[in-house]
Specification:
Chain lengths: ~675, ~625
């Protein structure tokens, strides 16, 4: 029984990871959790395979290095579902997964309880392949790192010992590259010409050596068949794929190329073979073949071997993705808690780049994970469960303590109410236990365990009778779950639910009134300190007192303005443009001048917001982002804003108040005249 | 006077330093500074810096460049090198700051090595010092291999705020701050303003009267006084009475402050900031006497200083170095000081001249060791310090190192003791180099001019770039052409062969170098060849045939140096240079009003014409 990877408590922060791996003493009562790093990964994977195969469902949870790459990338009130998807996509692309909790649950009819196997994988995107891969970078959000530190996350275990991975797409690219490389090595020798004297001498010498060796082979001469030339280079006779061969050592790569040339020119039956073994140390052979067909065979064998080695290398670089492949190929029911971001991470890390739209994502995710259930949906959408939550928060930990108090406290009291609850045991390294102290919150393995417990308990409340549950029955196809399966919160705060069932029309399920977004204008880079209320006042003065429904801050540098109708949107944008192209006094007197002051104010419709969100750039302030993405060209005025002149004029005309609106209209009417006057 | 003091200090230190001089295997004991011992070490650092002639520093960052072409290369002008360094400095985080104040007396090098563990902690939840940072996975893996302790760094790292962030946070930390004295009334008031002021004035008057009353007669029982408080909205600020007036615009703040000057004798206004950055309320605090007012202002000032100090964190050390005006020696001037500027001074300016002047106001004397090294030993590579050191062995320049500050209380054999060795090596290398150069820094108190010349040397020429680092040959940037979109992967030599056959412009001498896997640069040694080639590639009709036409049909693209420059300036830092150049060419017609200085705007307009012709 192997149990040396059971860590006692959350390790002490100051100690180094390495020293911790040796500690084996398990503190009594600590939550049993299988910690997996690259040293025990292969072994654990074998066990996990059988656990997942036997499981009724598998709960997962992820810990990431961050959530939002800029404050405005957070879920906001005016985010349409497609914008929300773009924000999730941005998050999944930029941040790294550092911990992955996988917890298979199996109903054990003998003990009338669930058996769970919580695994806590440390994951780190280490580059395992030697060739030049795209430089891998990830973002860390400082608050998230602080958050992880608060829950004693072990960064050393993650970075020193974390399991690496390749996504499917990366694997394809890697094998393509290996293919290219093997082609290259064949082509390369053709344009080598012997010009230098040293090369000529060397080639003659080698020609002689090979001739001697070959004739010794053929005529069974008793001479020593090896070649040793006194210097560091040596060649000894070995067997390569059942054929006599010379193993070349100590030659420079240039010399090897010359040897290749010599062989091709002068020896039809000697073949040059280059191999790479697992430890990536290369070996070179000159092999004797007794016929043309034998030669072809040999070439093919050598090529196959190279391919095998490359495949093995790639296979080992796949690392943690084997777990994902396992979950995917077993088509088990995946359980997560508010898990859309988690699923997006899984897709971008282990499948390939996230699709550009939510629709494409939905179409694609089904092939990999046909059954996903979100416990947060379950608790909020099902009226009975919702009531049972007694209006308390549906966060993971509070749902756990409310639904599964017996597990949290690990009490096996005779209390009749607790007796009705689903019994759950934990099994780690073949040791089954049903008593423990609460585990560390926000540790992926324990969070996955909690999620699974909530799901089991929720199912029991929904009327599942596990006691009469047959092995063959698939939980995922149970009609009681039908309403909840494959529905995830796209945005929990807004209550947007994304439906992953491809058969359904998605558009129906988006809780969206599209017209609303047509009435939105985005304004950024207005004078600082201008508050939402003041902006509303300004616009109301210009476009009518009821024109603006509400104004909502994105951050300090930008606002959404919700107009009453879409006509007002284009009116506003037109008016803004008009005022900006105007240098006359209208520009200063107009009520909008307060917003446009400074000459940098940008404004655009909702589509521009989507465009800005889809950019892979993330500036901290929204105004900077908008400028960088380049939406400014749509509305930005000429850079020649005469600000100093403007303020001067403004000081002369401060007395103008609301009553001047008539005057402004007059100005607007005479705009052309004013312009002419000015140019004259 | 100064040398005398130093000597005294040194003698006292060498007694206390005792056995911690050097570790076996040539490692020095470096004092490791973390959150827990930062405050207590600060004074020691101050003395170390004051007693030394130079300060060596070395940084450990979470990354250096994201893609091959982001590396500063020989084809970059100072401005482009700066833009590349700026891009890296803004993205990556400094995790360790090794600092080594040192002095050189003859062959004796006295060092005071420290190693600071840093981590940006967003304590105010305002995205300061940084909202997020990038990590290069390969860099972290390499650090892990060297035994870097990430837990120590993240749990115990010292946080900081840059100078600009500190002044910005003043308002945001939530502490009430003293309102600036109001100058002349800002602008004529409207009717609404007058009404507002009148209302507030009477409220303040009543409240003040009650304060005066309560301070004169103390006979009131508790009930009455608390009732009065309720009615008047009076509160307590510490032991003093105060009145909080909510405001809804900065204009109102202004008006209230103006009005309160009437009561300046015994009422002090404080500004209460709201979370979003504006002023939420004005708090008027009642002073019982003139002395009380002075005491109050002092208390407030102390509170603010203490708070600022806490927030400033590690920047205190940077300020110490800066205010000491000692020459700073670093291994890589550009990357180190862009990082330092971005993290501890303020946002990096958009061009290299502004950067230099901004930097020199904080660090007037900077020695670029790699530049110094090049003068002595032009072929050495500075990026590997031990190798650079051994390359100088052919010179006789003995340097004895003495570690003057006490090692850390942690046991000497602990592995993280080794962090921060680089700064010591830099000081050692510097000592060697200056001994070789026989420049007697010892006698001059201010060795500034020499060292500044070293740093500014690389800004010498703008338009010419060095092409290959070894065997260098200067070439005007006009003669460089970038080509990408090749049908298949090629080495530089095969590409050169292919090009030679493709067009007669290649009959003359030219060179090819791959910049990354997607893009190569062609150097023409004949002045007008580059134009000929560019127009040939970009006007497909004029191509009479031959393999160049096939290559263009297969997707070959070419652009001049200006495009490369613009790609950097516009911030198109794609992973492949080819993508960046494509993007730059696409954007050329829409984005001409970028934030550059006038001289460059004329360039862009030239470019626009250029690209219209293409």
């Amino acid at each position: 029984m192997r149990r040396h990877k059971r860590w006692p408590l959350r390790p002490l922060a100051s100690a180094l990871a390495r020293s911790r791996f040796c500690s084996s003493a398990a503190a009594a009562g600590a939550f049993p959790l299988k910690h997996v790093t690259r040293s025990n990964f292969e072994m654990t994977l074998n066990d996990l395979r059988s656990h997942v195969k036997a499981a009724d469902f598998v709960a997962i949870d992820l810990e990431m290095t961050g959530v939002t790459s800029a404050p405005w990338r957070d879920s906001l009130e005016f985010d349409r579902y497609d914008v929300r998807y773009l924000k999730v996509k941005d998050s999944a692309e930029k941040f790294a997964v550092v911990q992955f909790g996988v917890c298979p649950f199996r109903w054990d009819s003998r003990t009338q309880s669930f058996v769970s196997h919580p695994h806590n994988f440390f994951v780190f995107p280490r580059q395992e392949l030697t060739f030049d891969p795209p430089a891998h970078e990830f973002l860390c959000q400082t608050t998230s790192m602080d958050f992880l530190a608060k829950y004693q996350f072990d960064f050393n275990a993650c970075i020193h010992e974390g399991i690496s991975y390749l996504s499917r797409r990366q694997e394809e690219e890697a094998s393509k590259r290996y293919d290219e490389e093997s082609v290259d090595s064949v082509v390369e020798t053709e344009d080598l010409k012997l010009v230098r004297l040293a090369d000529l001498l060397f080639s003659e010498r080698m020609k002689k050596r090979f001739n001697e060796w070959r004739s010794a082979l053929l005529h069974g001469s008793s001479e020593s068949p090896g070649i040793s030339s006194g210097s560091t280079e040596s060649a000894e006779t070995v067997f390569y794929h059942m054929r006599p061969a010379l193993s070349l050592q100590g030659f420079t790569s240039h010399q090897l190329r010359v040897i290749k040339l010599v062989l091709r020119k002068h020896f039809g039956d000697l073949v040059y073979i280059h191999t790479n073994d697992k430890s990536s140390c290369s070996k070179d052979f000159v092999v004797y073949t007794d016929s043309e067909s034998d030669k072809e065979n040999l070439m093919k064998e050598a090529k196959d071997e190279r391919k095998r080695v490359a495949e093995r290398k790639i296979q080992s670089a796949i690392g943690f993705r084997q777990v994902i492949d396992l979950l995917s190929s077993e088509k088990k029911l995946i359980v997560g808690h508010n898990c859309f971001l988690d699923i997006a991470h899984v897709y971008s890390k282990f499948v390939g780049p996230l699709p550009s739209t939510a629709e494409k994502f939905v179409a694609s995710i089904h092939d990999h994970f046909p059954y996903i259930v979100d416990t947060k949906i379950l608790l909020n959408v099902n009226p009975m469960l919702h009531q049972r939550m007694k209006k308390s928060s549906t966060s993971l930990s509070s749902a756990f303590s409310l639904l599964c108090p017996q597990i949290e406290l690990s009490s096996r009291s005779s209390d009749s109410i607790l007796q009705q609850r689903v019994k759950i045991d934990v099994e780690v390294d073949n040791v089954r236990c049903s008593n423990w102290n609460a585990g560390g919150k926000h540790e992926a393995g324990y969070d996955a365990f909690m999620t699974g417990c909530i799901f089991a308990q929720a199912c029991s409340h929904l009327g599942f009778d596990f006691k009469h549950h047959s092995e063959s029955e698939n939980l995922a196809q149970n009609e009681k779950l039908d309403k909840y399966i494959n529905r995830l919160y796209l945005s929990w705060t807004r209550g947007d639910i994304i439906d992953l069932r491809t058969s359904n029309s998605n558009a129906e399920n988006w809780r969206v009134s599209n017209s609303k977004y047509e009435n939105i204008v985005l304004i950024w880079n207005f004078p600082q300190k201008l508050k939402a209320r003041e902006i509303k006042e300004c616009i109301c003065k210009a476009l009518g007192s009821t024109s603006v429904t509400s104004v909502y801050h994105l951050d300090n540098t930008a606002v959404f303005v919700l107009f009453k109708n879409s006509e007002l949107v284009s009116n506003f944008l037109k008016l803004k443009q008009q005022l900006e192209s105007d240098d006359g006094p209208v520009r200063i007197l107009h009520p909008l001048s307060k917003i446009l002051k400074g000459g940098n104010t940008g404004a655009a419709d909702y589509d521009a917001y989507k465009e800005i969100c889809s950019s892979h750039i993330s500036k901290i302030l929204f105004a900077d982002q908008a400028e960088t993405v380049g939406v400014k060209s749509r509305t930005r005025p000429n850079p020649k804003g005469e600000t100093s002149l403007e303020t001067e004029r403004r000081e002369n005309m401060v007395a103008v108040t609301d009553k001047a609106s008539d005057l402004i209209d007059a100005f607007l009417a005479n705009r052309v005249d004013v312009k002419v006057a000015r140019t004259n | 006077m100064l040398p005398k003091m130093q000597r005294r200090f040194l003698s006292s230190v060498s007694v206390s330093a005792g056995g911690s001089k050097t570790l076996n295997n040539g490692r020095w004991s470096v004092k490791q500074v973390k959150k827990s011992n930062f405050k207590s070490t600060l004074d020691e650092i101050r003395t170390s810096i004051d007693s030394s002639d130079f300060v060596a520093l070395s940084l450990q960052n979470t990354g250096s460049y994201a893609a091959a072409w982001h590396r500063i290369s020989a084809i970059d002008t100072p401005q482009m090198s700066y833009l590349k360094a700026k891009y890296a400095a803004e993205r990556y985080q400094i995790l360790q700051f090794a600092l080594c104040p040192f002095s050189l007396r003859g062959s004796k090098l006295t060092v005071h090595p420290y190693n600071f563990h840093l981590f940006p902690r967003d304590e105010l939840k305002l995205g300061m010092p940084s909202y997020s940072f990038s990590c290069q996975a390969s860099r972290l893996t390499a650090m892990a291999r060297e035994g870097f302790d990430f837990n120590a760094c993240i749990y115990e790292g010292i946080s900081y705020l840059s100078r600009e962030q500190e002044s910005a946070s003043k308002f945001l930390s939530g502490n009430p701050i003293l309102a600036e004295p109001v100058a002349a009334p800002s602008s004529p008031s409207t009717v609404a303003d007058t009404v507002f002021v009148g209302r507030i004035r009477s409220r303040v008057k009543n409240w003040r009267q009650s304060c005066l009353d309560s301070s004169s007669k103390t006979g009131d029982d508790d009930l009455v006084s608390s009732l009065r408080k309720l009615v008047l909205g009076s509160e307590q600020y510490g032991s003093r009475l105060c009145l909080t007036i909510d405001v809804c615009s900065e204009r109102q703040v202004q008006l209230i402050l103006e009005m309160l000057t009437e009561f300046a004798d015994d009422v002090v206004p404080l500004l209460i900031a709201s979370k979003s950055g504006g002023t939420q309320a004005v708090r008027a605090v009642f002073m019982s006497s003139k002395e009380d007012m002075d005491r109050f202002k002092r208390e407030l000032q102390d509170l603010e200083n203490e708070e600022n100090r806490r927030l400033r964190g590690f920047r205190e050390v940077v300020d110490l170095i800066s205010s000491s005006q000692k020459p700073v020696v670093s291994q890589n001037y550009l990357s180190d000081f862009t990082s330092i500027h971005a993290k501890f001074l303020g946002p990096l300016p958009s061009n290299v001249d502004d950067f230099s002047s901004s930097l020199s106001s904080a660090f007037p004397n900077v020695v670029d060791l790699s530049q110094f090294m090049k003068e002595i030993s032009p072929l050495s590579n500075i990026s590997n310090l031990p190798a650079a050191m051994s390359s100088l062995n052919r010179f006789f320049a003995p340097v004895d190192v003495e570690v003057a500050n006490q090692g850390c209380p942690i046991k000497l054999d602990e592995s993280h003791q080794m962090h921060g060795q680089n700064a010591v090596m830099i000081s050692q290398l510097f000592a060697k180099l200056s001994t070789i150069q026989k420049s007697d820094y010892q006698s001059s108190v201010q060795p500034s001019e020499d060292s500044y010349a070293l740093a500014s040397d690389q800004h010498a020429s703008d338009e010419n770039v060095q092409v290959w680092s070894k065997n260098s040959r200067r070439v005007s940037s006009e003669n460089l052409v970038f080509i990408w979109g090749l049908a298949k992967k090629m080495t530089a030599s095969t590409l050169k062969n292919v090009l030679q056959k493709s067009h007669n412009v290649f009959a003359q001498e030219f060179d090819v170098k791959l910049l990354d896997r997607s893009c190569a640069v062609v150097v023409f040694w004949q002045p007008s060849s580059s134009e000929t080639f560019l127009s040939a590639v970009n006007n497909e009709d004029q191509l009479l045939g031959g393999s160049l036409r096939v290559m263009v049909a297969e997707g070959l693209r070419a652009a001049g140096y200006e495009t490369y420059k613009r790609a950097c300036r516009l911030g198109f830092w794609e992973a492949d240079l080819a993508d960046s150049l494509d993007k730059t060419l696409e954007s050329s017609d829409t984005d001409l009003d970028s934030d550059t200085k006038p001289s460059e705007i004329s360039w862009t307009s030239e470019l626009a014409i250029n690209f219209d012709e293409l």
